[in-house]
Design brief:
The structure is a homodimer of 329-residue chains. Chain A has 329 residues and is an alpha/beta fold. In chain A, 34% of the residues lie in helices and 26% in strands.
């Protein structure tokens, strides 16, 4: 008898590929297939996992334990997650922070009816960073949180540069300011502006004959994206971009400093950091661990929409509770 | 109506005092009293909280929601935690790693009968460090964990030095080796010996006329405690010890490096660190957050022995689930 957790992947971009790799590396899971809106015959998977059209998903209601939602937060997930939790336990990485309460409500309404579990906003931020903000805040109620992102590639900012006239390709890195990190770690609880926390570095491939000065000016003054930051622009060749900037690294820091004692006389620093070669593969690895939790929790009769705050840590590990106590406590 | 969580403190040493301060700083809790085996009239609390003799505890079964066990792991907690979970929800900081399974079993047997909750081995190691080892291992199954402790005071090692003939007082610091930390962060998964991971630094007050060379030799060659480490000994005056080394700082690092991708081609580093001015006050703050969890979980009908792996993170926070999703996710 096969007790492996059966995983389906809905959407096959970078995140879907990351999940394919993560499931392959998890001995207690198996990949049932990838589901796509494209013509399945045109999609080749990394591991030769079967590819099906999204329209065929209803043939898999008893063949998949957890369906991993790999669409985008803007338009895909707000529709797909509540729709598919009617039939499957689902995990998504919904990351539009302001709309999380609304997304939670719509997924929960369907999940309560279907008896399935939907874990939303899983990944590293939201996800592991949220967890660390929460644990640190509960332990040190008198304190202040800081989140820094990077060094890493911001896809949205890279896209914004690519839309400028005369730009052929671009890659943008968000970089935390080391001096600001040190100031936070000192426990001085500084108030930091956007400009003081992060810088932005852009690598741009311009079209032949483009006005480089004008491109640079358009980038550094772009409202919301760059105007509030110290931004550096480097013009490089397509070959250099492809050679030196093809990865999708990211990471960041969640730091809470706080005090204890009747007169707040003792200072403490809690710091959590990630340094990731591949943002989508790490995010996929977090989603995969939460898929294990969803399958187990649903087997115990739990249902509804959940977030990382609602999932007892032990559910994520392939080890039994006894093993965890013995080996990791 | 008073909805505050009512806390009792069993044992009034450094940890008990830390809990007194932490409860005072928590707006959703109130301290009912401190329980001691000493004559209560001889014990003066920091906040003038009432002091009772341990023998009177049975008068409080309906007045305390969570009893915080602040005795030692060697002899107190193995007896007290299973005994008091018969009547109260309890939290302890049992830290004899090898005996955790046994302690869990004895607390669980009583808690299942009484319908109470006992959360054991709470603090930072075991506790927050255990959680971070577990989360990181679940997310990056292909990887390796490292734990470093310090810079901080080891009470047991300080005591061992004080037992040497000619030593009046002493304070020992455990210090992680920076080069080893860097090696681990590089993702090279080094095999590190005890000596390579930590050094030990000792500040010793000798009695007048004592043989300093002999004391130093006894320290650095002491089996189990110092022989496996590079140890530095400084002789100082009692005044200097009292002035410069009266704090109880501690901290440490939990680092996991691992890979993702079909060919393990992408490297990732997850790092959690603590820098604590007061080891007992921080430990007490963790216990206090878990007291909130114990009270809530028991109110929901949950019972039995639990560890940090079994407690969904949201239970620790005074915020509601809605607030957590809105503000911290």
């Amino acid at each position: 008898m096969n007790n492996k957790i059966r995983i389906g992947i809905m959407g096959y971009g970078n995140l879907g590929k990351g999940i394919e790799a993560a499931v392959t590396n998890s001995t207690d899971m198996e990949l049932v297939g990838v589901f796509t809106r494209r013509n399945p015959e045109t999609v080749k998977t990394l591991t030769n996992a079967p590819v099906y059209h999204t329209d065929d998903i209803m043939n898999f209601t008893d063949k998949i334990d957890v369906l991993m939602m790999c669409g985008g937060s803007a338009t895909d997930l707000p529709k797909q997650t509540p729709e598919f939790v009617k039939y499957f336990n689902v995990i998504d990485s919904f990351d539009t922070h302001a709309k999380i309460p609304e997304h939670f409500a719509s997924v929960d309404a369907e999940a309560q009816k279907s008896g399935k579990i939907g874990i939303i906003s899983v990944g590293w931020d939201p996800g592991m960073f949220s967890l660390n903000r929460m644990y640190a805040g509960a332990v040190l109620p008198n304190g202040k949180d800081y989140t820094f992102w990077g060094k890493g590639v911001s896809q949205g900012h890279s896209d914004a540069i690519r839309r400028i006239e005369g730009v052929k390709d671009a890659r943008q890195y968000t970089i935390p300011v080391e001096a600001a990190l040190e100031q936070v770690r000192s426990g001085s609880c500084p108030e930091l502006t956007t400009r003081q926390k992060h810088t932005r570095e852009c690598f741009v491939v311009a079209e032949d004959g483009a006005d480089l000065g004008k491109i640079e000016q358009e980038i550094v003054t772009m409202p919301n994206y760059f105007a509030d930051y110290d931004t550096t622009v480097h013009f490089i060749s397509q070959e250099e971009l492809d050679r030196d900037h093809k990865g999708i690294p990211h990471g960041g820091f969640v730091i809470r400093t706080g005090t204890t004692g009747l007169n707040n006389e003792n200072h403490h620093v809690i710091e959590y950091s990630l340094k990731l070669d591949s943002n989508p593969e790490f995010t996929a690895s977090v989603l995969t661990a939460y898929a294990r939790a969803a399958a187990r929790m649903n087997k115990e009769g739990l249902k509804g929409c959940k977030t990382v705050f609602d999932v007892a840590p032990g559910y994520l590990s392939p080890m039994s509770a006894e093993e965890l106590r013995k080996k990791l406590l």
